[in-house]
């Protein structure tokens, strides 16, 4: 079933005995992400097993997506992705030859596949969508499962006294068994958007909302436990946006219910924090206070977690290069750029950790145009679709801003997966909206053709 132009109702699709196979395959591959990443983090931290599980699963997904995209290939839909994939991989071989290092080549190819992975998921979904094999309901199902599993993968280990700190050097914050801490922050924020949206939608329509109330509560607790500034600040903004939005548009009775539930959840959260997480919160506050006082650039360094200083180091490396023209247009590869930047901050490897700049210094202007031209298509969809489907547009904009300021999206398999799924949702909504407008225009033209007097009185 597909969602129609109203995005809440379903319309029939053509009979196809295989359609459910692709639907369940997509759900299986992506809804299990929280469990796979928790297991992967546990193996890395406890057994020093590297990221074998995570990389193995992503390689399987990459192969499946590539196979399905080729199987349901449509030239007009897939051409842009083939160009991006071909040029990004070609770049890595050129960088490998220039630096005369097979180790650098392998590392650069692995880094570039993280970006390709995002676009491959999107394109595979689009091809399946146009073959009536899959729809928006598939993405909704993945998010519904994920917004429960992610907070459970945080609060259950915490309750059992297991898991690891978000910041190991200061032993503060909490990340469960997840290894990619910064990536986790963004994913939890995206889950909060989808959970709150479903919560208020169910409340407004007098539906069953307790599951989403439960998940929203656990997600807020999880975001606080991470101890990350971005999690706490952006999480608060997201919550306030949804509260304000729904208090403005709902009836009096629903407003009272929203305020009552908000008060109850706030009191419950306060009691939990005071009795179980008080020391954690104090350590988090102490950590942020310390780094705020330590930052050489004051508030800017504090907000960006010193990324502005890493950016300055990357700029110095770039400006002092003997091949600045080549680096401007084509970069020098992710690994070499990290090596060069690391020299200026006393580390073996260091990236700026702001995706735009990481792309620029790695792949140059050409890489920026290649990647961001593709993404800007979805940015426009998000802006245009704000009034029709708020959660996908809001989630994309939060992810886009986070990518620019905090990084760990384009070069992250975890956060990149959910960016891709958001883009898939935006595509379907945009496509359905265009189809609806075309149908309305077609009906109007038909009426005019059958009854020319319509124009006379219009």
Describe this structure in words.
The chain is built from 19 helices and 2 strands. With 458 residues, the protein is mainly α. A hairpin with a 6-residue loop joins strand 1 (2-3) and strand 2 (10-11). Helix 7 runs antiparallel to helix 8, helix 15 (334-345) crosses helix 16 (355-384) and helix 17 packs antiparallel against helix 18 (413-450). The protein is globular. 40% of the residues are buried. Residues 1-15 have low confidence and may be disordered.
Brief summary:
This protein is mainly α and 458 residues long.
Write the layout of secondary structure elements.
Blueprint: E1 2-3, E2 10-11, H1 19-31, H2 33-47, H3 52-71, H4 75-99, H5 102-130, H6 136-159, H7 181-204, H8 210-226, H9 229-249, H10 252-276, H11 278-294, H12 299-304, H13 307-319, H14 324-330, H15 334-345, H16 355-384, H17 390-406, H18 413-450, H19 453-456
Antiparallel strand pairs: 1-2
Helix pairs in contact: 1-6, 2-3, 2-6, 3-5, 4-5, 4-16, 5-18, 6-7, 6-8, 7-8, 7-9, 7-17, 13-15, 14-16, 15-16, 16-17, 16-18, 17-18
